[in-house]
Amino acid sequence: MASDSAARGLVMLEASAQLQDARGSRLRARAGKAWAALWPKALAIAIVLAGWQLIHLSGWKKDIFPGPGATLANLWDQLHTGLLWHAIGTTLQRAVVGFGLAVLIGSVVGALVSRIKPLRAAIGSLITGLQTMPSIAWFPFAIILFGISTTAIMFVIVLGAAPSIANGLIAGVDYTPPTLLRAGKVMGLRRLSLYRYLILPASLPAFVAGLKQGWAFAWRSLMAGELLVVIANQPSIGVLLSTDQDQADMVSATAIIIVILVIGIVVDSLFNVANGAIRRRWGLAGS
Amino acid sequence: MTLIERQARPSQGKASVSVRLAGVSKVFGRGSSAVRALDRISLQIAPGEFVCLIGASGCGKSTLLSLVAGLEQPTAGEVTVGGGKVAFMFQEAALFPWLTAAGNVELALRAHGSAKAERQRRAAELLELVHLGGFGGKRPHELSGGMRQRVSLARALAQDADVLLMDEPFGALDAMTRDVLHDELDRICAGRDLTVLFVTHNVREAVRLGDRVVVLSSRPGRVIEDFDVPIGRPRRIDSAAVAELAARITDRLREEMSRHGK
After folding, report:
1. Residue B9 falls within a domain, yes or no?
2. Does B30 reside within a domain?
3. Is residue B10 included in any domain, yes or no?
4. Which whole-number Å values give the CA distances from A159 to A152, A166, A214, A222, in the listed order?
5. What average pLDDT does chain B have?
6. Number of structural domains, chain B?
7. Residues facing residue B197 across a β-bridge
8. What is the CATH number of the domain that holds B227?
């Protein structure tokens, strides 16, 4: 009896040890995964910094071209002033509003064009044409139309981003698998319900791809806009950059460029997270 | 609502024919490139009957199902479906990848306008019926091919249709899984008044499942013979009776194919 319970105790001990082992190995696996994702990025940044430092050391344009040390120190200082954060705030607010408008307009146009045949014949290729148009070319037009104002910038952001978003949705609708369409039809889904429960969800991956591309265009248009449409008393990232140019402050200009790059990368990775989540849900992700 | 309709509908008698094809022809294309897929097909299927359509590829089996489903219109002749409601099951499960198994079944119920709580209850019930209770939360890609076809069957049954059209639904499955699904289909059909039109190119499968096996010729598709299957259920696909009738039907098919020089 006693030996029996002792044996049982031993078995339980063993089991709990195994459990802890499993927990430990899961943690290790997660850490390993994070490390696998992180080290190539860290290495890439290190290589860029090293290359930059080498160019600096070689003495090329020594008087103007700053090294990474001075630039990062300058960035660190600017991050401790209210001005840079204020500028980032203004710029991001414009980005959110402009991109939001572009999503709204692009989705509505995409939805209409994908379903209405004459409309597609009429403006389908126009949308693609707009997509290839460099957004900076719109600024003279926008400035004459709206003056030196935020509206002019918004106008160009929407023109830059909405076509990609519309095209993403149109592509998604076009590539809805015919087998699913047939299944939906025999299930009794018609017109609006077919659109809402089948075609729209089926278009989601292509739509997100369109959003991602639209964001890239919106961000580019916004930066061009802030450099061209300088609004007094409204510090933005573009205004800071423009001031640096006027004062020939290369160190600060480089620091601001790093800020622009980082924001672009962070937002892009948000889209990648959304895209990855959809692909996993659909079983499209390679395991 | 649909349940009441079902009970109120006289199961036999009123309409002694569930699906009727009268001199149905279907031509694709025009002029010299026109292809006659079906040629003057006449066929009557009684309510609750399980009819298998068999023929070489290109005999227009799938076209025939599309006509019955109303996905296409016949060039000539008339297709009538008593009761009117038709569900369809394809070779590929065609489940929506953004929905769970239960979500797929619920969507079919939604198309017929039941309330959310009722949909969830019915979907769970139907998944239980196809032996997938507990798998409702899984997404299609997490299920095996056989399980996906079970969900597809549950989704078809969710439409509470009078006629179930099946286009080689087990064609892509391995023999073992197919065998199990034959049993399941038998069990499910026995419990309800469902007319089934089942297309296959597997003669044994046709004899295993059907009350009748209709043999079609190819290019154009014509009914060349209509076999009754006088074998009691439960049947086994490897039983002697099934094998014997399957051999006779295969001979008839061979004869037809050699006449076409193929």
Report:
1. no
2. yes
3. no
4. 11, 11, 10, 11
5. 84
6. 1
7. B51, B165
8. 3.40.50.300
**More confident position, B2 or B28:** B28
CA A236/CA A228 separation, integer angstroms: 12
Residue A62, chain B, CB below 8 Å: the answer is no
Q: How many CB pairs under 8 A join A and B?
A: 57
Q: Inspect the interface and report whether the beta carbons of A186 and B87 lie closer than 8 Å.
A: yes
Adjacent-strand bridge partners of B24: B41
> How far are the Cα atoms of A177, B150, B158 from residue B94, in angstroms, in the given order?
9, 12, 15
For residues B196 and B156, what is the distance between their CA atoms, to the nearest angstrom? 12
Q: What are A244's two structure tokens?
A: 């640096």
Domain that holds residue B173: 16-259
Under an 8 A CB cutoff, do A281 and B92 touch? no
* Residues contacting A214, CB < 8 A, separation 6+: A99, A102, A103, A106, A161, A162, A164, A165, A168
AA identity, residue B231: I
Kindly state the average pLDDT of the residues A49-65: 90
CB atoms within 10 A of CB B99: 17
Instruction: Assess if residue B160 is contained within a domain.
Output: yes
Residue type at position B75: T
Determine the length of chain B: 262
Q: Which of A220, A230, A234 is nearest to A263 (CA)?
A: A220
Give B28's pLDDT tier (boundaries 50, 70, 90): confident
CATH number of A70-282: 1.10.3720.10
Secondary structure of residue A67 in the 3-state scheme: coil
Instruction: Read off the pLDDT of residues A195-209 as tens digits, 9 standing for 90 and up.
Output: 889 999 999 999 999
A208 touches chain B (CB under 8 A): no
**Residue (of A239, A100, A206) closest to A157 by Cα position:** A100
Chain A nearest-CA distance from B44, in A, is 22
B262: pLDDT strictly greater than 60: no
